[in-house]
Amino acid sequence: MKERRTKFEKELDQMEQRRVKLKNKVEQTEQRRASNSNCNSNNSNNSNNNNNNNNNNNNNNNTVIYH
């Protein structure tokens, strides 16, 4: 009976270790997703700013000044 209990406890320990590893993996994945989301947001903002700057430059180049 004692051996069986010990085996069961070992299995429980292994399951707990696996649970902790998976929990850590999930946290890392969530952090990576959040980081990627911020990068994507920044890239989108930069792209929009570049487009606006290009449009402004084009408008300035096309402006005819009459004296």
From TrEMBL:
Start and end residues of each stretch annotated as Disordered: 1-67
Basic and acidic residues composition-biased segments: 1-33
Biased composition (Low complexity): 35-67
Protein name: Uncharacterized protein
Domain of life: Eukaryota
